[in-house]
Amino acid sequence: MGFLVVFFNQKTETHGVIDLDANATTRMLPEVVDAMLPWLRDHHANPSGSYRGAKFARKAIEQAREQVADLISAAPEEIVFTGCGTESVNTALHSLDFLTVIGFAVVSAIEHSAVLRQVEGSNREVRFVKVDAAGFIDEGDFAAACEGAAFASVMLANNEIGVIQPIAKLLEIARAKGLPFHTDAIQAVGKIPVSVKDIPVDMLSISAHKFHGPKGIGALYVRSGFDFSPLIVGGGQETGRRSGTENTAAIVAMGKAAELAKQALESGLGAELAAMRDLFQTLVMEGVSGCTLNGDVISKLPNTTHLSFNDCDAAGMLILLDEAGLACSAGSACMTGKRKPSHVQFAMGISEAVAKTSLRFSFSRFNTLQEAAEAAQIVIKSVQKLRTVQGGGVGPVAIYT
Ligand SMILES: Cc1ncc(COP(=O)(O)O)c(C=O)c1O
User: Fold this and answer.
1) pTM above 0.85, yes or no
2) CA torsion through residues 288, 290, 294, 300, sign
3) Closest Cα to atom 7, ligand 1: which residue?
């Protein structure tokens, strides 16, 4: 519990609310802000220059590359910085699409929209692999889909339900068919140990704001020697793999966040997150009748829980929870207002009626056990209130980030 003691006094400063929406984004750590500030304030040189300031910036970028590589046990030259996680995913899939001539794209039915929109936007036919009620990819279906395919992309951990896929096994199946493999590890990196030595994929996507780095900076791991075609072309930065003047400040901050994430994982971050999540989950499930836990309970991100509340409109719940000072998610941060039932829950066979009563709660190292307990009481009271005033009936909800 040493970790929690350290962070116990760092109350989440998100407009006075308890922030249980870490899968949407996380707050930057103070050390990350400190590492970033000089690059916004004092050093402006273009890292491609030949003068002193430029070399200073270049050195800082290369140090960040080492820090990010270290987090996933990669080599620094295998890391390409991108403008965000979405760009990392888009780049990987563009590259696979561009370099393979024939065959299907194979993706899971529960991928993030960054994957789904990119593959749907190409001329290639796409096979969407089913998942079971627990959220796991159907391995038989995956093997069948890989027949005659060009490449596969399967997420490591799902952003909505938190289920962790057996990527090593899926990779083995894809490899047996000679297929290149990308994984969107954006929700996993920083929450669980991820090593490209254990899951030797060809490409892997990361986003800094999911592990207390800044928004608008990501990275793509490209296995050494793996064929690559850039999405963004121009000045040839990032050894020609991602053009555009580097965002030195964001890259330096991502490096610091990666270093701190690695240290935190080694000091038991996973257990600390799980302790808060489990306390919250247990209290809510004890305090609310008609509450269902969605997704597998074991192979799951330690910070995430996804619950459905009978006869409780998730949209109504969000309003009550916000009023009571609790932030969580029933829909995508970027899609708010669009209001579609979640494709992830649909793929898991959760009925539309139940999907419309589901909420995701996701913890970060800024939360405390005390907040977890307080949040559970807020949820219990909000469910009671909504059931009283609403008397059943549900409204629509949207897609998750
Ligand atoms: C699984 C997954 N992939 C991709 C993304 C996109 O990352 P970014 O917000 O950095 O563009 C997200 C962010 O919500 C995500 O959860």
Assistant:
1) yes
2) positive
3) 85
